Amino acid sequence: MTHERKTGNERRTTTLGDCVVVNDAAYSPKEAWLFINYLDTGNITENRISEIQHLIAGKDKIPSRARRKVQPGDIVYSTVRSNQRHFGLLKELPKNFLASTGFAVIRGKDGLARTDFIYWFLAQDHIVEHLHTIAEQSVSAYPSIRPGDIEQLKLQLPPLPEQSRIAHILGTLDDKIALNRRMNETLEEMARALFKAWFIDFEPVHAKIEGRWRRGESLPGMPAELYDLFPDRLVDSELGAVPEGWKIKALDEIAKFRNGLALQKFRPKENEELMGHIKRQHLSEAKCVIPAPALLSLDYVLGRHKQKS
């Protein structure tokens, strides 16, 4: 054993391998699950899951890397390109959940280490950078680490009550960050919906034409004070019917273009897809509908709403 055992409330110097269990369970095709819920390495970043693939046996192709069994509360930590921070603490899991063999599945040993405390230890910038340095020295096709590299990490392990307090504080902060992120995503969705209604579907103009929006009245997404900013008829243009008084312009007339990225220098590697892209020439030639100047003043619109609230 490499750790120095102490009594009382003192911290102990140890290696991660002495206080965690790594990759203790694997799925076998002999188990013949009818379906799996699969997490690939690219589908989680700093505790945020973007996708869990629901795959049905006999219908969907089951990845050969879908092998790691995970328990609720385990850590999944990508061993490939660790600097991309594809790791997380999985508190709730769907049935028949499997993670890619590109993950190390880590769990604290009972009575010695809390898994949530170990997660925050592994999420530290200097630990991520240290593991990435090891990965860059690997001889594999991708910068990668071995589970043993994680197990060899040294740490000062506090007593369990202190681990619990530290993990609780950091977890609470992370929950608040996640809540703020969800709120921002909701606001962004609302902004996109409003933009589409006003400047793509021309809903305020249609509402005035059809008599659904009258002066002094408000409709969802159409405050009464903005009534005079929208015309009450559509006219033909090269892009189809547009609000009267609005102009059609090319993007290079209203925006400055900076040099883009030379994608030929960043060809996809094995098992990676080519990134979809648009050339600068196509952007500069694109046409768009420009509304009346008053509608382009964000300060004006926001100011009017602020006064009303």
Alpha carbon gap, first and last residue: 65 Å
- Ranges where pLDDT stays below 50 over 5 or more residues in a row are 1-7, 300-309
Helix content: 25-40%
CATH superfamily of the largest domain: DNA methylase specificity domains
Major beta sheet summary: 4 strands, antiparallel
Strand content: 15-25%
Overall average pLDDT: 86
Q: In which order are the strands of the major sheet placed?
A: 2-11-8-9
Radius of gyration: 27 Å
Number of extended strands: 16
Global morphology: elongated
- What's the order of the H and E elements? EHEEEEEEEEEEHHHEHHEEEHHEHH
CATH class term of the largest domain:
Alpha Beta
What is the structural class? alpha+beta
CATH topology assignment of the largest domain: Adenine-n6-DNA-methyltransferase TaqI, Chain A, domain 2
Can you tell me the CATH architecture of the largest domain?
Answer: Alpha-Beta Complex
What's the domain count? 2
Total of DSSP H or I helical runs spanning 4+ residues:
10
